[in-house]
Design brief:
The protein is mostly helical. The chain is built from 9 helices and no strands.
C-alpha cells in the first residue's frame, strides 16, 4: 500500500470520528493526498481503501502470530484484525451506523471483505481452492461478521467478550 493510500485511509478514519459517512465528501478526503490516486474515484473506493489499510496493518503484524494449527492461527488473525479496528473504533461505529439502515448498500462491500478473508485464510494455512475452499472462505466470513456484532458491544479494552464470541463461533464452524 503506497503512502498516499495510507494517508487517505487515515484521513477518512479521522473524519469519521467527527462526521457521519453521508456528511463526508470525496474531495474533502482526497485533499489530504499529495498525489491523487486514480484508483479512488468514489466514496465506495474510500471504503475499499480503508479495508485494504486494515489488511495492510494486519500483514505488518503477522510476525506477532505464532505458527500453530489453522484454527488457532485463525483465532489470532481475526483478533489481530479486531485490535486494528479497535484503534479506530469510533470511525467504524460511524460506518456501521450509516450502513445498518442501508443493508442494500452494504452488499457492494462484501467482495472487499471476502478478499480480507482470503488473506486471513492463506496466512492461517487454510486450503482455499475448489468448492471446499470456497465454503471455508464463506464460513470464515460468517464467523467474522458474527464476531463483529459482538465487538460492537464489547466496551472492554481487552476485548474479552469479542474473544469469547470468536472462540464460540470458531467451535460452531469447525
Amino acid at each position: 500500500m503506497n503512502k498516499d493510500k495510507i494517508k487517505i485511509a487515515e484521513s477518512t478514519l479521522k473524519l469519521l470520528k467527527k462526521k457521519s459517512w453521508d456528511k463526508i465528501s470525496l474531495n474533502e478526503v482526497l485533499s489530504t493526498a499529495k498525489n491523487l490516486d486514480k484508483s479512488i474515484n468514489t466514496k465506495k473506493d474510500l471504503l475499499f481503501n480503508i479495508n485494504r489499510y486494515v489488511d495492510f496493518n494486519l500483514k505488518k503484524q503477522i510476525a506477532l502470530i505464532e505458527d500453530s494449527n489453522s484454527k488457532d492461527m485463525l483465532f489470532e488473525l481475526i483478533m489481530l484484525r479486531f485490535d486494528i479496528l479497535q484503534k479506530h473504533r469510533e470511525s467504524f461505529f460511524m460506518l456501521f451506523n450509516f450502513y445498518k439502515s442501508r443493508p442494500q448498500k452494504s452488499i457492494s462491500l462484501i467482495p472487499s471483505f471476502l478478499e480480507s478473508m482470503f488473506l486471513i485464510a492463506s496466512i492461517a494455512n487454510i486450503e482455499i481452492n475448489g468448492i471446499k475452499g470456497s465454503l471455508r472462505i464463506k464460513g470464515i466470513f460468517i464467523i467474522y461478521v458474527a464476531t463483529y456484532f459482538e465487538w460492537l458491544n464489547d466496551n472492554s479494552k481487552s476485548l474479552d467478550k469479542t474473544m469469547t464470541a470468536l472462540d464460540k463461533n470458531l467451535d460452531k464452524f469447525s
